[in-house]
Amino acid sequence: MTAADPRRVLSTVWRMESARIIAGLARLVRDVGLAEELAQDALVIALEQWPVTGVPDQPGAWLMATAKHRAIDLLRRQSRYREKLEEVGRAQPQVVDVDLAAEADDYVGDDVLRLIFTTCHPVLSTESRVALTLRLLGGLTTDEIARAYLVPEATVGQRITRAKRTLAERNVPIELPPPAAAAERLASVLEVLYLIFNEGYSATAGEDWVRPALCTEALRLGRLLATLAPREPEVHGLVALMELQASRIPARTAPDGSPILLQDQDRRRWDRLLIRRGLAALDRADGTLGPYVLQASIAACHARAVTAEATDWTRIAALYDVLAQISPSPVVELNRAVAVGNAHGAIRGLAIVDAIDLPDYPFVPAVRGELLSRLGRNAEARAEFEHAAAMTRNARQRSLFEGRAAALGG
Amino acid sequence: MRYLIMLKAKQPATPPPPELMEAIMNLGAEASAAGVLLDTAGLLPSSEGTRVRLSGGRLTVTDGPFAEAKETISYALYEVRDKDEAVEWASRFLGLHRDLWPAWEGDAEVLKVMGS
Prior knowledge:
Chain A is an all-alpha fold and about 400 residues long. Chain A has helices at about 5-30, 30-55, 60-90, 100-105, 110-120, 125-135, 140-150, 155-170, 180-200, 210-230, 235-245, 250, 270-285, 290-305, 315-325, 330-345, 345-355, 365-375, 380-390, 395-405. Chains A and B meet through helix 1 and helix 10 of A and helix 2 of B.
């Protein structure tokens, strides 16, 4: 029998609680970078004390209380400093005696929501939003983020530092967006979460086809957001989409690590629990037709099909038609081409692909190759797959495309 | 990574205190909100259950209660980043029992779901 190792408990509790701690502090000190520093001060204090005193009964609450004391001390010092300045100047007493400690205990959920909107703020570059969100909301270390994205740790560190500096310099308030900006700001949050998910689901670089840890992290943050903002249909739509896509992860990779495409997957391996959760999340979106709800509805069509042949491609093509209207993009067009190709024939699918302008995206030639091969135009199809293989930076995708090219004969 | 946490204990003589049930509901809500609790439920005593056994090539079906000293009381399925996090949730769960039902004793078994 062993007692819990204080350092190990601390690192676990820190990862689980740091978002809430930083979020609470950010409201008090109105600066994300400073909030993180104060939270880390509490971590250091715990590292010194817990091995001596033992792990507190409520380690998360202990960290939160300690960090808040640091914040309140800092604010009182700043406040006294301002008072002194004013004594020197106009001798006007400073009145900021709000009950800081009581204020600090309220609205933990709202704090986290405010922090998400801040780390996903449109003034930040996409890369910075992703890194800062994973760091502050996900509780991931710079090193963990760097490994997930296969970039040097220093690069991630710079993105995070730059993001904090930008938020401070641009005086971005840590608050829920005003009604006029709410839709755009929510879209930015959802985009960041889905980017994280997709980086995990279809790794853009490296040896792995799937990096499930990033999918799980995005899904976790999405579920968190759905609890904090339950009246936003698109949040439920995104969660539904991620749950449904994640349900296929066990079937997407062969034992040797190579990818298995949707139509070839062993559907018995799909995760029924995630499918059920995804369909339930889609129900909560209540039929509203936003881009994520539509994509989730498409994923639900696949989830409901017991075999690839049973897929309702007509419905999927119709959903893509709507999606292409409300949220047009070359990637949507490409997926619409696949759906139309399955529902209404390869020639109609090919017509859509030929109108797509998306250079450097290997799935464009891959889809064209697939549709051409169905028309028996094998030489053209092979050239398209070879083109796709030359384009991709992902080793697993490359061998998939090379395999298709080889199967079409020489 | 998924972990199944199974709570096992002797069948208690009295029902759990309402404050404990309330605290368990709150902890469950917190874990769901954190996006890590996928599924959980309490289980009725094995007197309500049945055992199907294969032994010596023969199937037998025997109604509960089972002979074991401990009953399986509840299960929770978590999706967390590592085992330490699952252990922390299990510790919080048993911590509530410690604080709100002092006479209670039992185990939370933390088992990793294969392939997750």
